[in-house]
Amino acid sequence: MCAMNAVRSPMAEALAKHFFGKSIYVQSAGARKGEADGFARTALEEIGIDLSRHKPKSVEELEEWEGLNFDLIISLSPEAHHKALELTRTLAAEVEYWPTMDPTLVQGSREQKLDAYRDVRDGLARRIKERLRR
């Protein structure tokens, strides 16, 4: 879960599905609903993962469509972490906070911006592999 389900959480969802397939159930959502992000799509395409069909959704939309039957909620932004803690008042889910930089805040050339997205992608990939292998 991240702020708008546009960059960090969709990247994390796609990476987890890529690494673990159907052996785990993974869905991403945002504290709010944002717009799809081209840099996030490009950063994942570089490593062979297609994010083009991702449609940003809020936690409320995810709950309405599929329910919130999760054992673990990983929050990637302060806003998402507060939302996750709110949810666990009524859900029996563990919450972990992985502070993750928002690459949309990086200024500079296209390549400098893309480097920020790559850093987020690579950091999430490392943490996901480590955490979900357990």
Automatic annotation (TrEMBL):
It holds the Pfam family LMWPc. InterPro entries: Ptyr_pPase, Ptyr_pPase_sf. Transmembrane segments: none annotated. It comes from the Bacteria. Residues 1-134 form the Phosphotyrosine protein phosphatase I domain. Keywords: Arsenical resistance. This is Low molecular weight phosphatase family protein. It comes from Bosea minatitlanensis. The lineage of its organism: Bacteria, Pseudomonadati, Pseudomonadota, Alphaproteobacteria, Hyphomicrobiales.
